Amino acid sequence: MVALIAVVIFAVRCDLIGTAQRLRALVRDALTFNLMQSTVQQSLLTALGDLRPDGGLVVGWREVQARVFTDRTTSIGVFGVQVPLGSVRIELDVPGNRVQYLLPEGDGWSASALDAKTILLTVPPPAVNDRVVEVQSDPSRIRVTIDNDWMEHIIPSGGDIDKAKALIRAAVIEAGGSRPALAEVRLEARNTARTFFGGLFSQTTGSDVTVIVQFSDEVPADQAPLHKP
Predict the structure, then answer these.
(1) Rg of the chain over CA atoms, in angstroms?
(2) How far is the C-alpha of 98 from the C-alpha of 181, rounded, in Å?
């Protein structure tokens, strides 16, 4: 009987020790995870602060062809009636422009540790950096089409061409921000964000981590809104 009691006591003691060890391991893992989460969020905030002067994380360049249209109709008043004199339509085809794309700093960013080795990074969709746009500067590469009517000798089109050229930059930004153009940029943007922040988070957490990148417009509508950490 004494031996049986001793065995029971030993078993209970071992079970208590095992439970205590498991609890300590759970607490240790929780503290480690919380520290990792805090480190990741702080690293993201610091990185966004460093990227702010550039407008965000640059993810690539793209050559863009732009088209510009302008129309002007001229008329004169005769006895209170507007009589049309003629019109000029200018069309410019402008190849060889370049736009820069970035993941804009600001809203739409968040980072969450899914486990000790995996981080979910949410970033805003790529956009044209309207501060860095290269517009075609070689006049010989700009194709100009002029549609004049019978009053061209009275209504010269030279000034209209100059006005149309002044619209090229805005047209380049619009073309670069079109849905087809951005669709091709998203893959490059995702890879750039994964590489950049994968290296950053691995350095700040002290261990190799895998970064999963999603764009904020990919988050399901029923998911809680993302907040900048």
Answers:
(1) 31
(2) 12
